[in-house]
Amino acid sequence: MATERTLSIIKPDATRRNLTGKINARFEEAGLRIVAQKRVQLTKAQAEQFYSVHKERSFFGELVAFMISGPVVVQVLEGEGAVARNREIMGATNPANAAPGTIRADFAESVEANSVHGSDSAENAAIEIAYFFAGSEIVG
Ligand code: RTP
Ligand code: MG
């Protein structure tokens, strides 16, 4: 499998509980390299744009409010099959369904406050990475 990059976000529920280091350790232990990273406070407009694919969903307003409720850490992870590998490490969206040992099983508070985001395809990863990072900010 080829080396890939994926966009990860450590969400406000996790930054609030000082879990950034523990979550980053999961990525690194799984062989994913953190090749870009910054801590930011998203604006409402940025969160709405980032999650615009969900704008018709009933939970959209709550999701945007949650994503701007505190700082997030946006990062680029690089490794073999990084998109799928990261989704495995994250676990299912709802922590009640997440496999034991996954980030969401171990840290998520709810289906919404589920600690991490990860791109769901290589195509979306490219779009999401470009949304947050200039090429010069990614150092592989
Ligand atoms: P993400 O995009 O954040 O990596 O998560 P995902 O692919 O596992 O889940 P997705 O279906 O894309 O949903 C995006 C985020 O919306 C929140 N959500 N809330 N209240 C609800 O029923 C509900 N469903 C989803 C979660 O924060 C989810 O990660
Ligand atoms: Mg998603």
Automatic annotation (TrEMBL):
<dbReference type="GO" id="GO:0006241">
    <property type="term" value="P:CTP biosynthetic process"/>
</dbReference>
<keyword id="KW-0479">Metal-binding</keyword>
<keyword id="KW-0808">Transferase</keyword>
<keyword id="KW-0067">ATP-binding</keyword>
<feature type="binding site">
    <location>
        <position position="87"/>
    </location>
    <ligand>
        <name>ATP</name>
    </ligand>
</feature>
<dbReference type="Pfam" id="PF00334">
    <property type="entry name" value="NDK"/>
</dbReference>
<comment type="function">
    <text>Major role in the synthesis of nucleoside triphosphates other than ATP. The ATP gamma phosphate is transferred to the NDP beta phosphate via a ping-pong mechanism, using a phosphorylated active-site intermediate.</text>
</comment>
<dbReference type="GO" id="GO:0005737">
    <property type="term" value="C:cytoplasm"/>
</dbReference>
<dbReference type="GO" id="GO:0004550">
    <property type="term" value="F:nucleoside diphosphate kinase activity"/>
</dbReference>
<dbReference type="InterPro" id="IPR036850">
    <property type="entry name" value="NDK-like_dom_sf"/>
</dbReference>
<dbReference type="GO" id="GO:0005524">
    <property type="term" value="F:ATP binding"/>
</dbReference>
<comment type="subunit">
    <text>Homotetramer.</text>
</comment>
<dbReference type="GO" id="GO:0046872">
    <property type="term" value="F:metal ion binding"/>
</dbReference>
<feature type="binding site">
    <location>
        <position position="59"/>
    </location>
    <ligand>
        <name>ATP</name>
    </ligand>
</feature>
<protein>
    <recommendedName>
        <fullName>Nucleoside diphosphate kinase</fullName>
        <ecNumber>2.7.4.6</ecNumber>
    </recommendedName>
</protein>
<comment type="similarity">
    <text>Belongs to the NDK family.</text>
</comment>
<keyword id="KW-0597">Phosphoprotein</keyword>
<feature type="domain" description="Nucleoside diphosphate kinase-like">
    <location>
        <begin position="3"/>
        <end position="140"/>
    </location>
</feature>
<keyword id="KW-0460">Magnesium</keyword>
<dbReference type="InterPro" id="IPR034907">
    <property type="entry name" value="NDK-like_dom"/>
</dbReference>
<dbReference type="GO" id="GO:0006183">
    <property type="term" value="P:GTP biosynthetic process"/>
</dbReference>
<feature type="binding site">
    <location>
        <position position="93"/>
    </location>
    <ligand>
        <name>ATP</name>
    </ligand>
</feature>
<keyword id="KW-0963">Cytoplasm</keyword>
<dbReference type="InterPro" id="IPR001564">
    <property type="entry name" value="Nucleoside_diP_kinase"/>
</dbReference>
<feature type="active site" description="Pros-phosphohistidine intermediate">
    <location>
        <position position="117"/>
    </location>
</feature>
<keyword id="KW-0418">Kinase</keyword>
<dbReference type="GO" id="GO:0006228">
    <property type="term" value="P:UTP biosynthetic process"/>
</dbReference>
<feature type="binding site">
    <location>
        <position position="114"/>
    </location>
    <ligand>
        <name>ATP</name>
    </ligand>
</feature>
<keyword id="KW-0547">Nucleotide-binding</keyword>
<feature type="binding site">
    <location>
        <position position="11"/>
    </location>
    <ligand>
        <name>ATP</name>
    </ligand>
</feature>
<keyword id="KW-0546">Nucleotide metabolism</keyword>
<feature type="binding site">
    <location>
        <position position="104"/>
    </location>
    <ligand>
        <name>ATP</name>
    </ligand>
</feature>
